[in-house]
Design brief:
By secondary structure, the protein is of the alpha/beta class. It has two domains: 3-162 and 314-338, Glycogen Phosphorylase B (Rossmann fold); 169-307, Glycogen Phosphorylase B (Rossmann fold, 3-Layer(aba) Sandwich), CATH 3.40.50. The chain has 13 helices and twelve strands. It has a seven-stranded parallel sheet with strand order 3-2-1-4-5-6-7, sandwiched between helices. The longest helix is centred in the last third of the chain and has 28 residues, at 311-338. The chain is globular, with a radius of gyration of 20 Å.
């Protein structure tokens, strides 16, 4: 049995790591989390025991660097001894593991993170990515070629393979059919755009008399919905249930749109920057629309219906990734016995 440290820093990660905790339940886990967005509520909903350590410091570069140092210091002091760190692109976990002379696994699906990738990739011992990500780009950003392990699919497949819809999900909704809209992450350092198209989107779908589930990312996103007819839930919702029940999912960033697309739900990304390789793959496959043209988005939603979900494909991806992860655990255990 290995002692694994998982660091959770973003909203999609509780769902991402839940299948690992279930499949590899014979391991000893310590889970740290960052106080950010819906992370704590989602971890509680999924009964994932964790210790919140550190918070998000916004998009100001000076504050972000301060936050990086402060959180890494806290993690160094608070995380108990471990054999292997595991994260989805956590710079904090990679740095702390390196300082402690421990191995680190990092999943990533972002080939355009730039500065963040250069802070992460040189310190990762096992870098697990979709095959869609160009190896040459990862190497240019600091990854070691011998550390890169790729799988055939999307990260969203890994946890959608274990998804079971909540039969009571719609009980507290005022309607049964709706589109879901989630704004851009305008406070993220990697987003240069300052203006959201969400107010115009809300107005356009109200004009079409289409029900809207609105999921604000920040407190300030509530301002976009003033004067609009939308439903805003009182507590964070599980993203996969949202994707399953939505007529379409429209989001200003990538993961939510990819979750919907993998499930066969019409997906729109109005991400304001250049697309990641995984998003471009979905656009090329006609699984997703990428646009910031409001009328084009409305027309797409009105003219598209759900595809049949290919659960077998997602299960194949999950099986491949679990095999990769299991092989790494075996390798770590063998090295422990040799020592």
């Amino acid at each position: 049995m290995s002692r694994l440290w998982i660091d959770i820093k973003n909203s999609h990660e509780p769902a991402f790591f839940k299948p690992f905790l279930t499949r590899f339940s014979d391991q000893d886990y310590f889970i740290s989390s960052r106080k950010y967005a819906e992370i704590q509520s989602l971890l509680m909903q999924m009964n994932i025991k964790n210790e919140p350590i550190g918070r998000h410091y916004g998009r100001n570069k000076i504050l972000k660097m301060y936050g990086l140092i402060a959180r890494e210091t806290s993690l160094l002091l608070k995380v108990p001894d471990f054999d292997l760190s595991l994260s989805h692109g956590s710079i904090y976990a990679a740095h702390v593991a390196k300082i402690k002379f421990k191995k680190t696994i990092s999943f990533i699906d972002n080939d355009r993170a730039g500065f963040a990738n250069r802070m992460l990739l040189p310190f990762v011992d096992y870098l697990i990515t979709p095959k869609t990500l160009p190896v040459e780009s990862l190497i240019r950003q600091g990854a070691k070629e011998e550390c890169i392990i790729q799988y055939d699919g999307f990260k969203e497949d890994i946890y959608e393979a274990s998804f079971n819809p909540d039969p009571d999900f719609l009980h507290h909704f005022p309607f049964n059919e709706f589109v879901t809209i989630r704004p851009e992450a305008l406070k993220a350092a990697y987003v240069k755009e300052k203006k959201s198209i969400v107010p115009k989107l809300l107005h356009a779908f109200n004009r079409e008399n289409i029900n809207i589930l609105y999921l604000p990312r920040y407190q300030t996103d509530l301002d976009y919905a003033k004067g609009q007819k939308v439903f805003i839930p009182n507590a964070p919702l599980k993203g996969l249930d949202v994707c399953h029940h939505s007529r379409a999912v429209l989001t200003g960033s990538g993961t939510f749109a990819r979750e919907a697309a993998c499930m066969g739900t019409p997906a729109v990304s109005f991400y304001p920057e250049d697309l990641l390789a995984v998003d471009q793959k979905m656009v090329d496959e006609k699984w997703m629309l990428h646009s910031r043209n409001v009328q084009e988005i409305v027309d797409y939603v009105l003219s598209n219906k759900k595809r049949c979900s290919d659960l077998a494909r997602s299960k194949r991806v999950q099986s491949e990734v679990f095999k990769i992860f299991g092989n790494i655990l075996n390798e770590i255990e063998c090295k422990k016995r040799v020592r």
